Write a sequence for this structure.
C-alpha cells in the first residue's frame, strides 16, 4: 500500500495544472494589463481613463443597483418556490422540471425572450393596448426610458436566474432533518413560526452560498442588458466588452475587469461578515 | 384542504411565469414575418410558418456558428470529464494531504468574474495561436465547467460502495480493470449528466466566446455581435434556437440536478 500514496496526487494534478493555467495566470495578466501602459511602463492611466469615461458612473450605478434589486427578489422568490414544492404532492416532479428549466437558458437567450415582450410592437404593448391604456406602441427600451429598461432587465434576470437559487435552497432543505420541524409542531409552533425559528436558521448555509454566488454573477451581468438595450443601460462587464472590442483597448478593459473582481470580493466579504455576526447574535 | 388549493394555484401561477415567455418566443419563431411585426399581437399564434426559422438558418454564418458551437461544447465536455473525473475519484476514494486545499481552490474558481479571465486570455491567446479557434474558447469554457465536473463526479463516486471495487481486486482485477469493469458502468449515467451539464455551460456562454473569436464565432457570440444590426425575426429565431437544447438537457439531467448543485455548493 505504500506505493499508492502518490495516486491521488497523480489524479488531481492535471486539473490543478489546468486551473493554474486558466485562473492564476490570467488573474496576474489582468492585473499587469490594467496597470501597464502601451510601452510597458507602470501607470494608473488605464484606471484614470476608465473613471473619466462618460459611461463609467452609470455603469457602476446600474451594475450595483441591479445586483441590489435582483438578488433579494430571486432569493425571496426561490424560497417561495422551494417551500411550495414541499407542500405539493401531486405533480411534484413536473413542477420541479418546469421551475428548473431556466437553469439551462443562457443570459443572451433570456434577453432576447424579454425583448420580444418589451419591444415596440411586443407583447407588453399589445397587452396594454388591449386594456385600453395606450393606443399606439410605446418605446420602453430606449435611453430615454431608463427606468423601464431597468425593469425589463430585472424581469429577465429574475426569470432566468431564480432557478439556481431555487435548486440550492431545495438541496439545503433536503438536508434539514424532518424531526426538527415535527418537534416544533408537537410543541405547538405555527407553520409561520416553524419557518422563522426552525427552517430559516437551518437553511442559513445554503442561503449564504446562494447569495454569494448570485451576487457575483449579478455583478457580471452582460448579455441580458446588451440584448435588451444595447448600451442604453451601461453595465461594467458591458463596458469591458466595448473597450476591448470596439475601442481595441485591452488596458482599460482589464481595468474594468479588475474593478468587477474588486466589487465581487467586497460583496463576498460583506456577506460573510453579516452572516457571521447574525449567527453570533 | 383550502391551503392545498392555494398552494396549487400559486404553483401554477409560478409555472406560467416560467413557461409563458418561452411559449411567446416559440410562437414568434414559428410565424411569418408579418406576424412578427404585427401590431397589436394576440397571445396565440396567428398562423404557423417556417419563414422566420428558415430565414434565420439562411443567414450567412449561422451554419458555421452552430457548427463551431457544437465543436466547442464537445471539446469542453471532453476536457471537463477527462480532467474532472480523476480528481473527483481521488476526492471520493482517498484521504490525502491537500484535499481540503484543493476543494477550496475549486470553490474559489467559481467566484471569478469571467471578464478577468477572458480579457487577458484573448491577449495571450494571440501569441499562443489559440485566438479565434474553437480550442481556445473550449479551454476557457472548460475552466467554467471543471469545478462542477470535479464536485459532481466526486459525489458520484462516493455513492458507489468501495467494497465492490475491493471485491474485484480480490478476484484478481487490477486497479484499472476494477475501475473500468465495476465502477465505470455504475457511474455512467451520472458521468453522462456531468457531460451534458458541461455541454450546456459551453453552449450558453457568450462573453468569453465573443472576446476570444473574430471569424470562428460560436452561435451566442455570432448572435450577440449581430444583434444591433439584425432584424427582429432573426433575433427571435436565434433566441429560440439557443433555448431548445436547454429544454432537452434539463429534462435529461433532472435526476442529477440536486447532486449537481447540492453538493457543488458545499
Amino acid at each position: 500500500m505504500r506505493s499508492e500514496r502518490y495516486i491521488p496526487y497523480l489524479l488531481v494534478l492535471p486539473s490543478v495544472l489546468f486551473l493554474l493555467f486558466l485562473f492564476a495566470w490570467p488573474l496576474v495578466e489582468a492585473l499587469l494589463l490594467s496597470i501597464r501602459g502601451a510601452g510597458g511602463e507602470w501607470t494608473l492611466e488605464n484606471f484614470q481613463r476608465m473613471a473619466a469615461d462618460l459611461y463609467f458612473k452609470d455603469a457602476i450605478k446600474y451594475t450595483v443597483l441591479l445586483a441590489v434589486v435582483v438578488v433579494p427578489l430571486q432569493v425571496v422568490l426561490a424560497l417561495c418556490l422551494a417551500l411550495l414544492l414541499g407542500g405539493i404532492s401531486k405533480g411534484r416532479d413536473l413542477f420541479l422540471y418546469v421551475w428548473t428549466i431556466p437553469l439551462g437558458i443562457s443570459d443572451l437567450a433570456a434577453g432576447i425572450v424579454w425583448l420580444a415582450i418589451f419591444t415596440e410592437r411586443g407583447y407588453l404593448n399589445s397587452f396594454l393596448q388591449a386594456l385600453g391604456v395606450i393606443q399606439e406602441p410605446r418605446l420602453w427600451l430606449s435611453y430615454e426610458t431608463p427606468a423601464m429598461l431597468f425593469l425589463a432587465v430585472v424581469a429577465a434576470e429574475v426569470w432566468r436566474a431564480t432557478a439556481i437559487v431555487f435548486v440550492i435552497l431545495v438541496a439545503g432543505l433536503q438536508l434539514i432533518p424532518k424531526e426538527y420541524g415535527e418537534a416544533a409542531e408537537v410543541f405547538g409552533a405555527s407553520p409561520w413560526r416553524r419557518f422563522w425559528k426552525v427552517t430559516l436558521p437551518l437553511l442559513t448555509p445554503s442561503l449564504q452560498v446562494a447569495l454569494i454566488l448570485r451576487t457575483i454573477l449579478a455583478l457580471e451581468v452582460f448579455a441580458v442588458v446588451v440584448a435588451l438595450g444595447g448600451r442604453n443601460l451601461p453595465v461594467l462587464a458591458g463596458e469591458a466588452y466595448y473597450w476591448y472590442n470596439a475601442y481595441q483597448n485591452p488596458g482599460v478593459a482589464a481595468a474594468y475587469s479588475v474593478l468587477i473582481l474588486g466589487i465581487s470580493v467586497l460583496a463576498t466579504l460583506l456577506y460573510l461578515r453579516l452572516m457571521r455576526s447574525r449567527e453570533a447574535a | 384542504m383550502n391551503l392545498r388549493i392555494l398552494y396549487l394555484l400559486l404553483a401554477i401561477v409560478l409555472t406560467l411565469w416560467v413557461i409563458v415567455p418561452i411559449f411567446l418566443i416559440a410562437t414568434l419563431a414559428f410565424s411569418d414575418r408579418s406576424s412578427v411585426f404585427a401590431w397589436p399581437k394576440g397571445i396565440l399564434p396567428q398562423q404557423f410558418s417556417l419563414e422566420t426559422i428558415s430565414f434565420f438558418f439562411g443567414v450567412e454564418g449561422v451554419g458555421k456558428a452552430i457548427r463551431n458551437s457544437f465543436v466547442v461544447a464537445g471539446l469542453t465536455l471532453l476536457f471537463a470529464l477527462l480532467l474532472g473525473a480523476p480528481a473527483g475519484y481521488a476526492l471520493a476514494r482517498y484521504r490525502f494531504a491537500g484535499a481540503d486545499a484543493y476543494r477550496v481552490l475549486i470553490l474559489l474558481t467559481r467566484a471569478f468574474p469571467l471578464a478577468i479571465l477572458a480579457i487577458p486570455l484573448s491577449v495571450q491567446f494571440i501569441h499562443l495561436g489559440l485566438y479565434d479557434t474553437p480550442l481556445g474558447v473550449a479551454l476557457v469554457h472548460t475552466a467554467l465547467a471543471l469545478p462542477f465536473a470535479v464536485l459532481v463526479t466526486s459525489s458520484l463516486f462516493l455513492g458507489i460502495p468501495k467494497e465492490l471495487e475491493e471485491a474485484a481486486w480480490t478476484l484478481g482485477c487490477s486497479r484499472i480493470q476494477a475501475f473500468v469493469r465495476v465502477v465505470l458502468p455504475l457511474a455512467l449515467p451520472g458521468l453522462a449528466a456531468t457531460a451534458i451539464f458541461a455541454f450546456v455551460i459551453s453552449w450558453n456562454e457568450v462573453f468569453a466566446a465573443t472576446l476570444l473569436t473574430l471569424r470562428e464565432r460560436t452561435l451566442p457570440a455570432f448572435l450577440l455581435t449581430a444583434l444591433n444590426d439584425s432584424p427582429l425575426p432573426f433575433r427571435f429565431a436565434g433566441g429560440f434556437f439557443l433555448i431548445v437544447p436547454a429544454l432537452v438537457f434539463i429534462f435529461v439531467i433532472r435526476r442529477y440536478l440536486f447532486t449537481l448543485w447540492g453538493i457543488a455548493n458545499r
Notes: Chain B touches chain A through 98 residues (CB under 8 Å). DSSP finds 13 helices and no strands in chain B. The radius of gyration of chain B is 22 Å. Residues 113 and 144 of chain B are 10 Å apart (CA to CA).
